[in-house]
Design brief:
Elements lengths: L11 H12 L6 E6 L5 H13 L12 H7 L6 E4 L10 H12 L8 E5 L7 H12 L5 E7 L7 H6 L1 E5 L4 H10 L5 H7 L4 H9 L6 H12 L5 H10 L5 H18 L11 H7 L4 H20 L5 H17 L3
Parallel strand pairs: 1-4, 1-5, 2-3, 3-4
Helix pairs in contact: 4-5, 8-9, 8-12, 11-15, 12-14, 14-15
This protein binds zinc ion (ZN).
Zinc ion (ZN) binds next to helix 3.
Length: about 325
């Protein structure tokens, strides 16, 4: 995974703007990096804060000075990073209280202080209020960088205290070219599966998740042939060492592929088993589309709804899947 945003072509214009603003001393004390997840928001935030703390001039960190070395070692006294934690993946008031303590100390490396707060939409109400106090009375020479996938979910008062920097998604062409350059095979399918997250696509590739695709196909066929019960398949999928989201996106891709073929398109047929595509071939496209939507909705819920029982949801989906395919007979 490239660590410099200079290797993410879609972020380069933003980085150039930030550098310019820094050199003109027009960087505000709090920035909110908002946009799609997995476009490099974490890398951009880290690079920005590293450059801010670096002893050399400019926003591009030198990588050599004492400050850069301390940051690389994870022991910089003037850097504080907060992330969601616990089963609920929330940012709680205890974490935010560290900011006040941290702010009260003088910068030890003499180059200001930097605070990174990732996934700011995960702040609970008390934590958000505590953060607001810090943003309203910002400590001197301190840079706050917040990242957030859904800025509209943040408290309006927090949003208004930060300057929003909207991070763009790469275009499909740009993303596929970039992923291919990183050595990703089947870049188009991975790009589709991640719904526009190039870093997620790269991560899934690095974790070799393509090896699971034939297994998912076998399982989907096995439920249609009544060789496997939906409950058995759902339990097996949940036992695998990977999240369920890629399976749902891959499955949605199958339906997408089928509707494209119905419309006479070519697409990436090699990613999906022909036998499976044949089973769907005569279904009306509106029914395929409805199920496609159902898959993507569940995928979105998996990442954002707490206390959710994925195995039951997947089982229900597999029951609907069998019903859908059998309905054409
Ligand atoms: Zn440096």
């Amino acid at each position: 995974m490239p660590s410099s945003v200079l290797e993410y072509p879609w972020l380069q214009p933003i980085w150039a703007q930030l550098q310019q603003r820094y050199e003109q001393q027009r960087l505000p004390h709090a920035l909110l990096l908002g946009g799609a997840q997995g476009v490099g928001e974490r890398q951009l935030a880290q690079q920005l804060l590293q450059g801010f703390l670096c002893r050399e001039a400019g926003l591009q960190a030198c990588g050599q000075c004492r400050s850069c070395q301390l940051l690389a070692a994870g022991s910089h006294p003037d850097f504080l990073a907060l992330q969601p934690e616990g089963a609920q993946q929330s940012i709680r008031i205890d974490s935010v209280r560290q900011i006040s303590e941290f702010s009260a100390n003088t910068a030890q490396q003499g180059h200001g202080k930097a605070i990174l707060l990732e996934s700011a939409e995960r702040l609970n109400v008390q934590a958000a209020n505590a953060l607001l106090k810090n943003l309203e009375e910002p400590p001197a020479n301190t840079l706050f960088v917040l990242t957030c996938t859904h800025p509209q979910q943040l408290m309006a008062t927090i949003r208004s205290r930060c300057q929003l920097v909207k991070l763009p998604k790469p275009s499909t062409e740009q993303a596929i070219t970039w992923l291919t350059e990183q050595g990703v095979k089947q870049a188009a399918l991975l790009w589709f599966m991640t719904q526009g997250s190039p870093l997620q696509a790269l991560q899934w590739h690095e974790q070799d998740w393509q090896q699971y695709w034939p297994k998912w196909q076998q399982d989907l066929l096995a439920t249609l042939e009544a060789e496997q019960l939906p409950q058995q398949v759902a339990e097996r999928w949940q036992g695998w060492p990977l999240p369920l989201t890629p399976i749902l996106h891959w499955w949605a891709g199958l339906l997408h592929q089928c509707t494209r073929q119905q419309l006479g398109g070519q697409g990436e047929a090699s990613h999906y088993d022909e036998v499976l595509l044949q089973r769907l071939h005569r279904l009306p496209s509106e029914r395929l589309f409805a199920f496609y939507r159902q898959l993507l909705e569940l995928a979105a819920q998996l990442g954002s709804v707490a206390n959710f029982n994925p195995a039951m949801a997947i089982e229900a989906l597999l029951i609907d899947w069998v019903r859908l395919v059998k309905s054409q007979r």
